[in-house]
Automatic annotation (TrEMBL), chains A, B, C, D:
Any GO BP annotation: glycine biosynthetic process, by transamination of glyoxylate
Protein name: alanine--glyoxylate transaminase
Pfam family of the protein (one): Aminotran_5
Gene3D superfamilies given in the database record: Aspartate Aminotransferase, domain 1 (3.90.1150.10), Type I PLP-dependent aspartate aminotransferase-like (Major domain) (3.40.640.10)
Organism of provenance: Adiantum capillus-veneris
Residues bearing the modification N6-(pyridoxal phosphate)lysine: 201
Length: 401, 401, 401, 401
């Protein structure tokens, strides 16, 4: 059954869920399995180990939780912190907003720095906050690496430098939902204590896995953290890791096989090539937006995101119309503007299993949609700008050289 | 990739996860979708409504949560109760034990009635407990309908009668993980306040959906329940239900399409026919066990389970050997004995998308395994007993009459 | 396993095999079935009947043969003609050439009219041939509706008019491999005696079904046709049609279920809308070619094909390089120039389950490839021309209005 | 869509098409590909080479033809023989009958030795025929290795010995449709000139591939064979083999990937283990038939087939009823009696991707069906006999030891 089918492939350019490669669909096309059979630990161990390579960590412990990014947030917070613990964080878009909301509902003492939507974290504000915290009451600095609502990528290395410079012992918790496996991310090098992502983002799987890596320091913190957690308790996992059976409750074997296939694809392409590829897509999309005479919601180039571009429409245009028309006429799925930027921006997700021509097709679609609804774009202008850049920068496909 | 492959189909006779019908695999074989597109509410609404028919409720509100049964438990408890609230419950096997453990970790005041593993809930104990609770301190009676570890089905109608007879206002929360959609279950008629199941059980889907139905009384209770919950908070769902977009965080579109297909299959067969079919499998399996001269772990026929049979092996035999040999030689997956009954019982799951001949093949396998490891079973005896009964009781397939 | 994998979806723009819709992949994702069970005739009858709607015939008899287009050709010829029978036909590209080759090897007396590659059938030549055949020695006029090698669509209605005007009794056999279900095709109205296609073309299935429709006149001819045929003998089918079991030898149930799904998709969109959609793709592609300053291999607009465009490259460029570079750098599959036009043309297939943005992505790819290999195309020019037209002509998606 | 669905897996025990392993379904779950891309020869070469291992030949040339077994027959005959050539063959069931029919329609001079249905080829008759053919007019001896209609396996080694003993130069053509990859088959050792099978039999793929191997002598014969063939002409293949592109017309990439997966599975298990496994199934099934007090259609044990057992029902029973009831009540697909043995036998196919418990489930089903329709079988008797044997003979699964 299909609801509202259209001809051809749906052009899926929301910033997640993203296109699932055929290889992953194939891997998941299977009956259920007894998760207590000897086959499952072989698979489980392989993905629990290999997922760490995506986070660029060799020291962390990985958890694959049957949940979404929202659950992964809760896992990160409740395992490392106690109620009333002070968290320093930044609200700069809908997803950091939602995380803040979760922190508050979980009874942490949240020091929220509000940042204009479209801007990234100001390191000097962070420095000031940490320097003034002489008693080290801040227990954690929580950062959304890539704010999916505004297309803003924060500077994690810079944040780590500030924390270090301030000699502040706070844990460093990072939401890497729309960044890990697509943007430059180095858990160990940047001393991130908890990093997390979801399966339906750059890993290009269906929704269903919250993937969390915890540094030794985070694991240590979990021993004294008093936040109530049961479903999200790392200890349950650790107990089963020791037994070699891995799962405190039934995993989805389909998603684990899918994850295995997704990791294989990424390693085959090369993780750094994958990241480089996303950088090309970000760059190309921004060139198209510029060619259309539109503004990027992201205020400075240092924060430009290579996984999603939020495009600001002129005041007389409702960005919701862009998204609706794209879907109704061209089978193109774009991201809506959310909350503060509802009606003002639409978003082009360009992450996951994707290639240049898919992106250019989507950009051609956006051009037509803009013109359809009355914005005087020159058709072909964005595609021309993007393809001039892509032509120069795209390497031959490794396996086909 | 396959780990430890064997010839032919795996005979999946654990009490979940169960066989996924081809129709469901097909429905799930698809790319990700934008869950904010107009296609998704059409689908979401249809499954949220139709899932209630499986619970036999028209008054409850349904929640489809990206989690497992363990998460569904947590959802049921935290949305309806406050810390320190008194829960009356019964520990009669590994799954009720785990639920009790969760209740305790969630800081409820748990009055646990320990029942011998293999027995069901004694209604007179329940009555005594409720009658003596004149101050109505017991806020909830929590019952595992079908204890998967011992193959014990509790009498929910009887429990409701006792609660009513005592005029006790406690909420009635039921774990229907290995019962709903396979055993007689009547949420409205039995005034159950929260009932829950998981997708990988009788619904015959992959793991990933915790399905929870809440009565109006439960929803009312949720307004004052003080237990901390964020990921599992029903309010987030209810807010999105009102908006008509349904999901507070990204759902798995694959699982929703799979659920749609699973429900279609069940309605096509007829829910009562499905339940009747499971009753045949339970009966047939017990006849086989009897023919083998082995004891059913379930102590009285009133508690016999039609979804899983726990078989007691003689003292000199290790039931783990039965399970291991079945997998290694016959590609047959049986359930281990857990915790108190480890080594003492093995379990035959007979639920979900299954037919008579699959069951008889498994029973033939169990016979050979038993003989393989030294138990003097007469080969064919169990199959003969089971098939004599099945031959008489199996109707023609509806669509083929 | 994947050979030479690349990131993202392969852009499949060869003129067949074409993209298989997810709905069809799902329908085919199934175990084998007993083709003698009562389920199979239900399915078989439904597709044998409904396939006629694609041919626009109510009077013909349909055959679904486990073979390719080449086998369907042989079926058409050997069932209607006798050795030494005179065939009048036209050689205007690689596929008509191959059919002629088959005719000759099958020992027919083939009167081949050679046409310059890039041109279509000259009706005056046809008229002259038929008029001079006063003894009616020509038993069949064989025409490739759409010559896939050069992108030339012949005028079937015109051909029928000439035959009628000449009052010539010859059978009219048509290869509709790259036309049926994409171009205007009217079997009954144009009195076509045998028409055929293959599953992997506009029907958007995998290869494996040769689909043949035979008019009553063709069936009558088959009674006296002396060409030797066994595997391709229509009589074997007709015998099984009468018995209601339909298949003289084992059919692929997967392909039959896939065909059912493909037909459902087409009827849902509306066959005439499908044809109209292909007309948009042909038009848009030609506008792009023009914008690039390149020549269409098709010499006159009356022969323009809406399923494939053969693009002539300048003399100093090797078109094989275009195809190779497209595949190696952009995961774009284009058609090679074949035989006489090898090295001189490359082909853009635009048929089957496809939409505007997929096409525009491919056109953007062709632009980059052309520039990559040294042709001075203005990037974006072709996309601009195509999208200006598509923007105006593309309707809202029916199911999403 | 499903026609006449029933609960649980269909028990597919016809002698083909057989169960497709999940691994093969997964491999086939993919979009179409450009068969002229560099990926396809890599795949094509690998399967064309490896398929020879299944035939146990290193000297033959393999052809993978988009057709069924019927087409493979035609390929074998028309490429090696000329019209009027004398063929010596044996008619001992429906499939050898159909092949004879094809030979006659192809205008060969067929010397048919009729053998009672249920018997195999009498080597002394063969010897007499060959010895009396002093002029070597017999150009080919054609043998169906395993007659699927009666469950008779002919002695190919014996036949080869007779041919050699007679120093007869005839070609030796073998239909291995229901034998190759399941029964002992040695193309090179037994000097078979053409051997053939179909994908939907022991290879456990969907229908669609006719697989033919031709010895050097057969290839040599093809140079002078005058039978008309076009679609089935080996030369077209050989020409493309030389070019390294392999396919004279569009192959099904899905089936080629499926074949790759099927071969991988077989090599992983070990071809000789696969053959040994089938021998167990044949033996076990015959023990069951004996236990039921029924007669095997196969008259002598030397001809017993390990891929299919034809069971003779008592005169007062209509075997069609057995098949019908099995399907209608137990979702069990059995083979009908065909032609001369219609109504008199039903057939249990036991080939392909299958295991012991699937077979025992089917045998249990047959018992119930027999009793259902009035034959006084002792329930469990066949299963007991079969499982006593299987228990002793079944090895541990290789990958699980």
């Amino acid at each position: 059954m299909e609801y509202h089918p259209g001809p051809g492939r749906n052009q899926l350019f929301v910033p997640g869920p993203v296109n699932v490669p055929e290889q992953v669909l194939r891997a998941m096309n299977r009956n259920n399995e007894d998760y207590r059979s000897p086959a499952m630990p072989t698979l489980s161990k392989s993905v629990l180990e290999d997922i760490k390579r995506i986070f660029k960590t060799t020291t962390a412990t990985s958890f694959i939780i049957p949940t979404t990014g929202t659950g992964a947030w809760e896992s990160a917070l409740t395992n490392t912190l106690s109620p009333r613990d002070k968290i320093l964080t930044f609200r700069l878009g809908q997803f950091s907003l939602l995380w803040v909301d979760q922190m508050q509902r979980l009874n942490f003492d949240v020091d929220v720095v509000d940042v204009e939507w479209g801007a990234g974290i100001d390191l000097s504000v962070l420095r000031a906050k940490l320097q003034s915290d002489t008693k080290h009451e801040i227990k954690a600095v929580c950062v959304v690496h890539n704010e999916t609502a505004t297309g803003v990528t924060n500077d994690l290395a810079g944040i780590r430098n500030v924390i270090d410079a301030c000699q502040h012992p706070a844990l460093f918790l990072v939401d890497g939902v729309s960044s890990i496996c697509a943007l430059d991310f180095r858990m160990d090098e940047w001393c991130i204590d908890v990093a997390l992502t979801g399966s339906q983002k750059a890993l290009s799987l269906p929704t269903g896995l919250g993937i969390v890596c915890a540094s030794p320091k985070a694991l240590e913190a979990s021993k004294t953290a008093k936040s109530l957690r049961v479903f999200f308790d790392w200890n349950d996992y650790l107990r089963f890791y020791k037994m070699g059976t891995y799962w405190p409750y039934t995993p989805s074997s389909q998603l684990l096989y899918g994850l295995r296939a997704a990791l294989d694809l990424i390693f085959e392409e090369g993780l750094d090539n994958v990241i480089e590829r996303h950088s090309r897509y970000g760059h190309a999309t921004r060139l198209a937006v510029e060619a259309w005479g539109l503004k990027n919601c992201t205020q400075k180039s240092e924060w430009f995101s290579n996984t999603v571009t939020a495009v600001v429409v002129p005041p007389h245009i409702d960005s919701t119309q862009v998204v609706r028309q794209a879907w109704k006429k061209y089978n193109l799925s774009l991201g809506l503007g959310l909350n503060k930027v509802a009606g003002k921006v639409f978003r082009i997700g360009h992450l996951g299993h994707l290639n240049e021509l898919q992106l250019l097709g989507a950009l051609a679609g956006v051009e037509m949609v803009l013109k359809d609804i009355g914005y005087p774009v020159e058709l072909g202008s964005g595609v021309a700008a993007a393809s001039a850049y892509l032509m120069r920068s795209t390497p031959l496909i490794k396996s086909r050289m």
